[in-house]
Amino acid sequence: MSEPVFDREARRRLAVLRHVEEVSGNVAMTCRYYGISRPAVRIVSFRPGNWGWTVAGAKDNALNCALGLTGPPSWLLWEIDADGGTATSDRGHTVRTSPFLGVIGMPPDEPGRHSTIPPRSTAGGNIDCRELTAGAILFLPVPVPGALLHLGDGHAAQGDGEVSGTAIESPMKAEVVLDIVADAPVSGLHAVTPNGRITFGFNVDLDVAMAEALAAMVTWMQWLYDVDRGTATALASTVVDMRVTQVANETWGVHAVLAAGAIT
User: Fold this and answer.
1) How far apart are CA 174 and CA 134, in angstroms?
2) Beta-carbon neighbour count of residue 37 at 10 Å?
3) What is the pTM of this model?
4) How far apart are CA 207 and CA 129, in angstroms?
5) CA of 232: how far to CAs of 215, 236, 263, in Å?
6) What is the distance in angstroms between the CA of the first residue and the CA of the last residue of the chain?
7) Which of 211, 204, 216 is nearest to 249 (CA)?
8) SS (H, E, C) 97-149
């Protein structure tokens, strides 16, 4: 294949992935783009299964101790109405669903086996960001040749923080379109959603995670509005929201949100 044709083909949709129900995928992309370009995961649709579960107090960790969760775990079992957009627990509580995948990412550029629990700034993974619903586009760095993209961990509903360590964990059918983009305004993990722009930070120290997410958003705003870094930071202080993504995955997450239409 000639170089011009190769480039045109690489910019087309590389794959459509459906029926993602566990951490799976391993979508090998051309190594030509290793470290240069990045996949853009465009989320088309999610549909949860008809059941799910949530548990609190299942781990002996500092957060659960601070919450006084020292006894047996507490469970909620859910019946999910995907068409109606609701889930009802075995205790009779009904919540709105907003399905997404907790895991979208790639393995780190290190030898050996790697846990899927902690998210990574260089690879994504167990991000658990409730903003990544249908219509969102997630941009990922490519840490390893072939990319080896994995998706999974269906969540029918989750609050910011995923405070018990679980969401409504459920089977999930997903449709995503995978593209390659040559350039991006932010070098790390970031997203565009129907509601705005998002940058991410991950660290065992929540302060460090916050600074990482904010620094990436400031960089993005410099590019968007053609201003210096100080001006971008001042502008961010008027409109950007900092949210705790999750406190469940050993490496905690924070995301910065610049709402659509916040600056005109």
Assistant:
1) 9
2) 20
3) 0.84
4) 18
5) 10, 6, 12
6) 44
7) 204
8) CCCEEEEEECCCCCCCCCCCCCCECCCEEECCCCCCCCCCEEECCCCCCCCCE
